[in-house]
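FAQ

Q: What does a record look like?
A: Structure on top, sequence underneath. For example:
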């Protein structure tokens, strides 16, 4: 055993890789190896001798195994280190450029307005784009056959009157919110989203992004409407912007107004964009009609409210000096890239 142990120690000393070590292990520890041979000698010994020999043999085997295990561990660590060393990543190499998108100008306006209204105590409500005739017209005081429907002849998903349509005006969210409100108490919401209409020129698109608003409470007056919309226009377009209220007609508000702001292109002097008037219309608004209140479950004797609706596309055009609304839906990267900001 001693001789064998020395022999193994000597050989193991020169081993520098796991493969050779394994071969050496097979040579000495396999069933046909010299250590098995030593075990076989047991059968020729007396009981007394067996005891002593057995103990020595066990101690010897443990020592040999330890020799192999210790070196194996050492070589494994060395090999791992070598691998790590050779696979080291060069962090100084330039990286591949990640092309970053940017927020669409309309998304910017939408977020800016949401923030403004939330700061004034409003909640943001998200209504569906596919609406019923009831919500888009009937509950807004536009019964079947009402002539004002003609101006919004729109995208019906089946035949008119019976089925659904893409919402054609910025007032369907208010119907849903009033109806859903269980306690029939005060409401303050804005509702952004898409609206679809038969329109198509430089300042109108068949699809636009709305911001609808509704306030319902006791003692709400036209003064609240004026104050809110003036704040809204000035915050978005700058304090110097002039805001004008013109009497108008909407079946679901009484009285109704249209809101104009100073033309962004000529500053009010008159140009082709504002048709020489110096003003551009940006909002429809008014006091919620008592019929609408009662059709949506509110008592018009107790509650009043105001509603407004606007296209954010117009505001984006003002703010960023975009002269054709249609570029906003073209998704041309040359257009969109102009709105990328570092902080996105
Ligand atoms: N719903 C109207 C439209 O889409 C705008 C509007 C909203 C007018 C609320 C009055 C009150 O043109």
């Amino acid at each position: 055993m001693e001789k064998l142990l020395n022999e193994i120690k000597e050989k193991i000393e020169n081993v520098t890789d796991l493969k050779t070590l394994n071969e050496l292990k097979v040579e000495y520890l396999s069933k046909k190896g010299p250590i098995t041979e030593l075990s076989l000698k047991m059968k020729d010994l007396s009981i007394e001798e067996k005891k002593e020999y057995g103990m020595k043999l066990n101690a010897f085997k443990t020592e040999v195994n330890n020799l192999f295990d210790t070196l194996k561990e050492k070589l494994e660590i060395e090999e791992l280190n070598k691998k790590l060393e050779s696979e080291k990543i060069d962090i100084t190499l330039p990286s591949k450029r990640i092309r970053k998108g940017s927020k669409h100008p309309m998304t910017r306006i939408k977020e800016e307005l949401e923030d403004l209204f939330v700061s004034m105590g409003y909640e943001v409500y998200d209504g569906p784009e596919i609406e019923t005739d009831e919500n888009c017209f009937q509950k807004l005081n536009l019964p079947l056959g009402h002539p004002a429907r003609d101006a919004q002849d729109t995208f019906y998903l089946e035949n008119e009157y019976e089925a659904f349509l893409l919402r054609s005006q910025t007032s369907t969210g208010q119907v849903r919110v009033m109806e859903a409100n269980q306690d029939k108490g005060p409401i303050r919401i804005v509702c952004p989203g898409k609206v679809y209409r038969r329109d198509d020129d430089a300042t109108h698109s068949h699809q636009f992004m709305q911001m609808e608003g509704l306030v319902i409470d006791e003692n709400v007056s036209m003064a609240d409407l004026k104050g809110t919309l003036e704040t809204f226009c000035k915050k978005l377009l700058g304090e110097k912007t002039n805001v004008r209220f013109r009497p108008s007609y909407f079946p679901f508000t009484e009285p109704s107004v249209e809101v104009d702001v100073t033309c962004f292109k000529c500053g009010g002097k008159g140009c082709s964009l504002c048709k020489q008037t110096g003003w551009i219309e940006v909002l429809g608004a008014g006091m919620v009609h008592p019929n609408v209140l009662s059709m949506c479950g509110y008592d018009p004797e107790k509650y009043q409210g105001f509603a407004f609706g606007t296209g954010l596309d117009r505001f984006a055009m003002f703010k960023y000096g975009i002269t054709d609304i249609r570029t906003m839906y073209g998704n041309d990267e040359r257009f969109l890239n102009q709105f990328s900001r570092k902080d996105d």
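Q: Is there anything notable about this one?
A: The mean pLDDT is 90.
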